[in-house]
Each structure stands twice: as C-alpha cells, then as structure tokens.
Amino acid sequence: MNIYKLEIVTETIISALQRLITQLSNECNPPSKEDIISIINSDNITLFLAEVNDEIIGTLSLVFNKIPSGDKVWIEDVVIDKSVRGKGLGKRLILFAIDYIKSKNIDKINLTSSPERVAANNLYQNLGFGKRDTNVYRLTIK
C-alpha cells in the first residue's frame, strides 16, 4: 500500500474522495472539487490517500490546532473502501498518521468514532487510543 499527502487534485482523486466519504456516514455529503482544493491549501489540514495497485482505497485527514492550551491534532474522516476492509489497511493508514504526527512533536492525538463503527473502534483501542471521559456536543444550525 502506498500512502501519501494529497497535494494535487485530479478528477480521479475527486471521484475517489466522493466515493469514500459517502461510505463514512449517511450524513456525509461528498466533497466538491472546491472543497478538496480548499483542504489541501489549508495550513491546518493534512489529507492522506492510500492506494493499492494504483487505486485509491482509503483516506484520512489530520486537523491541527494551535490554541492557548497547546498544540492539538485530530484524526478525522478515516475511511477504507468497503471492498477492501478487514485486511489491515486501516491500521497501516493510522500508523502512518501517528508517525507523521510524531514528526511534528505533538504528543497527544484525538479522534472520535461513531459507536456503530465497531471494527474501527476496536482498531483504535487496539492501537492504544483510550476513551476520554468527556462529552461531545453538536449544534446544527439550519
């Protein structure tokens, strides 16, 4: 598997990200070309793609925040294509992201995962992520 930071947007990448992100949740809208360009031009977001045999099969985003309480990083939008799940590819993608974060001298990594994503939650716990004693809130503005 080849994992790399997305730096150039092509129609193949747009199509792959739209396919993958809609597999994450029924609530997710596929990103537009403009969305993806904005993401890769952001100083706070790093988007990785994973390929097998020149086919994009996974993605992961890192969101970096510098706030008064310190540097924070969140792993977001981890998706391995449903056709290749269960082969350890998600684990390799997460480990790649952890190594990247370590190179930035950040010592805490945050992520959230929906409880119904049982395999993903098991993976995160097996990699050493622990549940935090906190509440996550969302306000939806219409």
Please provide a written account of the structure.
InterPro entries: Acyl_CoA_acyltransferase, GNAT_dom, GNPNAT1-like. Pfam families: Acetyltransf_1. The chain is α+β, with helices and mostly antiparallel strands and about 140 residues long. The protein has a single domain (about 1-125), classed as Gcn5-related N-acetyltransferase (GNAT) (Aminopeptidase, 3-Layer(aba) Sandwich). The protein contains 4 helices and 5 strands. A 5-stranded mixed sheet has the order 1-2-3-4-5. It is globular.
The mean pLDDT is 95
How large, in whole angstroms, is the Cα Rg? 15 Å
- The helix tally amounts to 4
How far from one another are the termini?
Answer: 40 Å
Beta-strand portion reads 25-35%
Domain count: the total is: 1
Got a strand count? Answer: 5
Q: Which CATH-level-2 architecture?
A: 3-Layer(aba) Sandwich
What is the name of the CATH topology?
Answer: Aminopeptidase
Biggest sheet details: 5 strands, mixed
InterPro entries: Acyl_CoA_acyltransferase, GNAT_dom, GNPNAT1-like
Domain N-acetyltransferase: 4-142
Protein name: N-acetyltransferase domain-containing protein
Short summary:
Residues 4-142 form the N-acetyltransferase domain. By secondary structure, the protein is an alpha+beta fold.
Features:
142 residues; alpha+beta; Aminopeptidase; 5-stranded mixed beta sheet; 4 helices; globular; GNPNAT1-like
List the helices and strands and how they pair.
Blueprint: E1 2-5, H1 11-24, H2 33-40, E2 45-52, E3 55-67, E4 70-80, H3 89-103, E5 110-111, H4 118-126
Parallel strand pairs: 4-5
Antiparallel strand pairs: 1-2, 2-3, 3-4
